[in-house]
Amino acid sequence: MAVAVATAAALGLAGCGSDSGSGSGGDGENVSLELLVPIYGDKTKPYWEQLVKDFEAENSNIDVKLETQSWDDIYNVMTTKMQNNKPPDILELDAAGPAYATDGALYKAEEIVSPETYEDIEPAFIDSAKIDGQAYGVPTVASTRALFYNKTLFEQAGITAPPKTWDELLDASKKISALGGGVYGYGMPLGSEEAQAETSIWAYGNGASWEKDGKMTIDTPEAKEALTFMKKMIDEGATQPNPGATDRTPLLDVFIQGKIGMIEGLPPIVGQINEKAPDLDWAIAPSPTKDGEPVTLGVADYFVGFNKDEDKQESIAKFLDFFYQQDNYVKFNDNEGFIPATKSGAEAAAAKPELKTFLESLPDAKFYPATNPAWGQTSGAFKSDVGQIETKSVDEVLKSIQAKADVEG
Length: 409
Prior knowledge:
The chain is an alpha/beta fold. The chain has 2 domains: 12-144 and 299-366, 3-Layer(aba) Sandwich (D-Maltodextrin-Binding Protein, domain 2), CATH 3.40.190; 146-286 and 373-406, D-Maltodextrin-Binding Protein, domain 2. The protein has 16 helices and 13 strands. The strands form 3 sheets. Strands 1, 2, 3, 4, 5, 12 and 13 form a 7-stranded mixed sheet that branches. Strands 7-10-6-11 form a 4-stranded mixed sheet. Helix 7 (195-204) packs across helix 8 (221-235) and helix 15 packs antiparallel against helix 16. Mean pLDDT is 90; it is low at 2-23.
């Protein structure tokens, strides 16, 4: 998942078995599968090495060649592989993975896992990366955003419950900011790291959508209302100073230090808080929306299977079904700090109270239109322009982002 929680790690290449031919693997013939996955953290590569070893022990005719790459490198690695017409058989990536279907290179999602596995996956995550109504990716890790809040600051400011609406958020944030001492009510990161995420949380909370009929829809009444309220939060001192120059990762550190009352965050933040500030009194609530109706930003990474000349579909499905076995899959998500995208995995994760809000928000998650070729430049426009709402009109900012989104590559 190409977000701040993805750590830059040294790349590695571990060959598990030799290249012993191709085929479906259904009749015992030898098959070699190439697997390319990104590194989320220190536990990623050891997990995959063990999983491959366990899988090969049960499927002696299938050799899996594992390649791990950092998030910084994996896109360039895939570009080179595609240019050389040598894609892996199985790739894990964000929505850029399913986007390879536009070249006709992928199996359909229902062809790379069994019907039982496919049925177990939360539909919202399958739907999130469809292209022309067809799914090509099956989600590996999933995440939604939720509101982290400092219970100590809430008590000091006389706030009895987390806000559900924008108006309640503004009121609570101003009360916390009024405490002084370098404390601010709401952390609003509109810097270049991930401004598209913060903006999407607000816009989706007002019914906005960034795409319609294949076109980017940025300059809309719903988005204007959302950005206008964001600007109001800034103007009335409810946020930290200069949100347009503030990135998410350092601002989360400020929250962990106890100086921010509320901030949107991902499940891995739970582990960071427990490690860096075990005495912090905090909790998690659903993301506030204009009217309090539940909706949140969802993100996911996906497995895709490349349909090359060799028929490896059955072997790919065997391996991915093995990955999605509950014990294997839950361990993967536990290692990386995300939430499972399967119904059975979510049931297992429900035993962890800190994940309750994230799990409950899964059905209401709304995603970036990341399979649209124009999303990359649109996301970049958010990162460069949306922070200017502090000094420019909302109309001017939205028109600028829309213009950049409309530029044909």
